[in-house]
TrEMBL record:
Belongs to the GMC oxidoreductase family. The keyword Cell membrane does not apply. This is GMC family oxidoreductase. It comes from the Bacteria. It holds the Pfam family GMC_oxred_N. Keywords: FAD, Flavoprotein, Oxidoreductase. The keyword Flavoprotein applies. Residues 219-329 form the Glucose-methanol-choline oxidoreductase N-terminal domain. Coiled coil: none annotated. GO terms for molecular function: flavin adenine dinucleotide binding; oxidoreductase activity, acting on CH-OH group of donors. Residues 428-552 form the Glucose-methanol-choline oxidoreductase C-terminal domain. It comes from Domibacillus aminovorans.
Length: 570
């Protein structure tokens, strides 16, 4: 028998970026907030001397325990979906901060085009640019409407940038801190792209360039360029993450409590509202019911969708009929790019997760798509994240795969290899979706999420086109040997690609085309909110985190309004 606890104003399911932002804003407004985090507590102190590549980057110290919960995967409906037994294509975070602890720190704003992609595409290229199999739609909100929330997120996080991207949407203010160091490697990229007629700029970074105190009074330190960002927590408190910003802000109010090892297994629905959530204490095995005036799903994309599915809230998407929205519009990314082998040595072992330069000339609708078989594009970047020796062992394609020649080539090329790569946008496709698995369950008896996904012709055309652009750049940089990325075949759950999963709980203007409205309020339960990259109607040519942060601030504003007045916010 589950024990019923005292009712609170707001309960969040997960304490990463979205859970932390919701908690901070609501707690500052006087609401009593409980954060349920199924992992454990951690802080900067836990990452002292964290430079252990095997423990963190190979054995995934900070990631979800797949023996307790995973997903099942298949490329299409004819295949049998099988459980993902080891982290591969994407890395699911766990514990306080979630994926916001082990991220690289790239912090982008989606382009104005992204939010009105359907309208702009139809107007410029006609309604038949993509077939009806692609479920393209506008987001229900414009860039200009979201811009103040982008600004708020960037100021909270102290984001470093130069503001020189000529294709970016209008900004109400400059970046809070200056851009990171422009290293010799980045200068090489800058010269090559400028000579090719492109417009390079410093990548917006949450590995910040100088000490910064944010508007809530939280201190963020300056990056040390140690090269241990992605898959690692920051020992310097210099990579902006929830546990050094929004979580302490929420706690200082006295209105916030986090319960650790609290695994939510169900949202409890009553009529057109929800009453709270049921969770299991992962240490004791006890079950609890946490009543709340407002429930906010702030866990990862896949878990937000899964909780709605197991709680039978909303209509599950059916690819045969096209009905339903829950689980619809799952998107990933493609990674066009090229590797260059150089004569000179470079300090590739130094860097930071978001230390880089980019061009947007081939992103969004920044170029004419009339004569290509795809829409959108990719931000193309040269990043210097710090190359670590276990994960990175580049050798030219004619090198033997073992023996003394392999060892010699490996040692020689470690500091002589660079990559130019793009984050390719993906469009929603009718056969790419999330559902519940009918066979496999997690350690608590809850059905696993099933992912049905494969690359599409749109993906393959975009990847081929932008791989050629990447080749052009790396060759211009002076590489003696250039190796383009392999053409796309079928998507595989291994190896690692990006943790940029989107869709499943998409936002929109009505219940027929979305799961939540533009305040991320659920259409079927007015006191239930779901916020994260699951709200994206498609995936863009950037990392999603800046847009996730902006949506979280908008959602928090909506929750506070709802707590005062009730009812639908749109």
């Amino acid at each position: 028998m589950a024990k019923t606890l005292e009712k609170v104003d707001v309960v969040t399911v997960g304490v990463g970026w979205t859970g932390g932002i919701i908690a901070a804003e609501c707690a500052k407004a006087g609401l009593k907030v409980i954060g349920l985090e199924r992992g454990k507590e951690r802080s900067t102190a836990d990452f002292a001397q964290v430079h252990d590549e095997f423990r963190y980057a190979i054995r995934y110290e900070l990631m979800q325990d797949l023996s307790k919960e995973t997903i099942t995967f298949r490329n299409n409906r004819k295949q049998e979906a099988l459980p993902m037994r080891q982290m591969g294509s994407f890395l699911l975070g766990e514990n306080l901060g979630g994926a916001g602890t082990h991220w690289n720190g790239h912090t982008w704003r989606f382009l104005p085009y992204d939010f009105e992609i359907k309208s702009i595409t139809d107007k410029k290229y006609g309604k038949n640019k993509l077939s009806d199999d692609y479920l393209l739609q506008d987001w229900g909100i414009t860039y200009d409407e979201l811009e103040p929330y982008y600004d708020k997120f960037e100021k909270m996080a102290g984001i470093s940038g130069d503001g020189k991207n000529p294709f970016q949407g209008k900004r109400s203010d400059k970046y809070p801190t200056p851009a990171m160091k422009k290293t010799p490697i980045l200068q090489k990229f800058e010269k090559a792209t400028t000579d090719l007629g492109y417009s390079p700029f410093m990548l917006p970074s949450a590995n910040i360039s100088e000490p910064y105190k944010n508007p809530d009074g939280e201190q963020i330190n300056a990056c040390q360029y140690c090269g241990f960002c992605e898959r690692f927590g920051c020992e310097y408190g210099a990579k902006t993450s929830p546990e050094i910003t929004v979580v302490p802000t929420a706690r200082k109010t006295g209105n916030y409590e986090i319960r650790f090892h609290a695994n939510v297994v169900e949202i409890l629905k009553e009529g057109n509202k929800v009453a709270g959530v049921k969770y299991v204490d992962r240490v004791s095995g006890e079950e609890f019911i946490q009543p709340a005036e407002v429930v906010v799903l702030t866990s990862y994309v896949m878990n937000n969708a899964r909780l709605l599915m197991v709680s039978k809230i909303g209509e599950q998407y059916d690819p045969t009929t096209g009905r339903g929205t829950l689980g619809k519009n799952y998107c990933y990314q493609v990674l066009p790019g090229a590797t260059g082998f150089f004569d000179e040595q470079m300090n590739v072992f130094m860097g930071a997760g978001a230390l880089g330069m980019s061009i947007d000339d081939w992103n969004g609708d920044n170029f004419d798509h009339s004569d290509v078989d795809f829409i959108h594009g990719a931000s193309i970047s040269m990043t210097q994240p710090g190359v670590r020796p276990i994960q990175m062992n580049p050798v030219p394609p004619d090198t033997p795969t073992w023996g003394s020649d392999f060892k010699k080539a490996s040692i020689h090329n470690y500091t002589r290899t660079l990559n130019v790569g793009g984050q390719g946008a993906t469009m929603p496709y009718k056969e790419n979706y999330m559902s519940l698995d009918s066979v496999y369950k997690d350690a608590y008896g809850v059905p696993l999420l099933q992912l049905t996904y494969n690359f599409t012709e749109q993906d393959r055309a975009l990847h081929t086109y932008l791989t050629k652009k990447s080749e052009e750049i790396i060759k211009k940089m002076g590489a003696k040997t250039v190796v383009p990325g392999s053409p796309l075949t079928d998507y595989d759950i291994v190896p690692y690609q990006t943790t940029h999963n989107t869709g499943g709980t998409i936002m929109g203007t009505n219940p027929e085309n979305s799961v939540v409205n533009t305040y991320l309020q659920h259409w079927d339960a007015e006191n239930l909110f779901a916020v994260g990259a699951g709200n994206f109607a498609h995936n863009g040519g950037y990392n999603p985190n800046g847009t996730v942060g902006a949506l979280a601030y908008r959602c928090a504003e909506g929750i506070i309004k709802y707590s005062k007045n009730g009812g639908s916010l749109v």
